[in-house]
C-alpha cells in the first residue's frame, strides 16, 4: 500500500526542487514584482546591475518559461522526475539569456526562433483577431492583390477601394 503524499510536499532532491519552484511561481503570481516602490534602493541596485544586459522577456524566453511551467504541472500528475529536471534546465537557459551581456547574439537567437515560431502561430493569432473584430467589422480580400480590408458593419452596400492597389469593388456590409 502506497503512502499518500500531498501535491506540494514530497521527499527527494527532484521533489524538493519541484516544491521550491512551485512556491516561487505561486508567490510571483500572487504578489508580483510591481509591489516594490519606484524609489527603493533594491530596485535602483537591480537597475544598475541590469545595465548592459539583455534583460528582455522576448518570444523565446516566454516560450521557455511557459514550457517549463507546463512540464512542472505535468510532473505533478505523472510523477516523472526527469520532467522537473528538464523544466529546471529550461528556466536556467531562460535566465542565462536574460542576464547575458551578449545582446546582439541573444537578439539573433530570438529572431531565428521567431522565423520558426511565428509562421506556426500566425494563423491562430489571425483567427483570434478576426473573432474579436467580427462583431464590429467585416473582412474582405481584394481580388487582385489579396490585401485584407476591414470595413465597419451596418453600412449597407458600399464601394470598397483597396488601399494597396486601388482596385474598386462593391460589397454588402
Total helices: the number is 5
Percent helix range: 55-70%
Provide the structure class: mainly alpha
Number of domains: 2
The major β-sheet equals: 2 strands, antiparallel
Strand content: 5-15%
Task: Give the mean pLDDT.
Answer: 83
Write down how many β-strands occur, each being a DSSP E stretch of 2 or more residues.
4
Q: For the largest beta sheet, what order do the strands appear in spatially? A: 1-2
Compute the separation of the termini in Å. Answer: 67 Å
- Based on Cα principal axes, name the global outline: elongated
Q: What is the string of SSEs from the N terminus onward?
A: HHHHHEEEE
- The low-confidence parts are 1-10
Global Rg: 24 Å
What does this structure look like?
The protein is mostly helical and 173 residues long. It folds into two domains: 13-133, no CATH class; 137-172. It has helices at residues 13-30, 41-50, 59-78, 81-98, 103-133, and strands at residues 137-141, 148-152, 157-161, 168-172. The strands form two sheets. Strands 1-2 form a two-stranded antiparallel sheet. A two-stranded antiparallel ribbon has the order 3-4. Residues 1-10 have low confidence and may be disordered.
Give a concise summary:
56% of the residues lie in helices and 12% in strands.
Give the helices and strands, then pairings:
Layout: H1 13-30, H2 41-50, H3 59-78, H4 81-98, H5 103-133, E1 137-141, E2 148-152, E3 157-161, E4 168-172
Antiparallel strand pairs: 1-2, 3-4
Helix pairs in contact: 1-4, 3-4
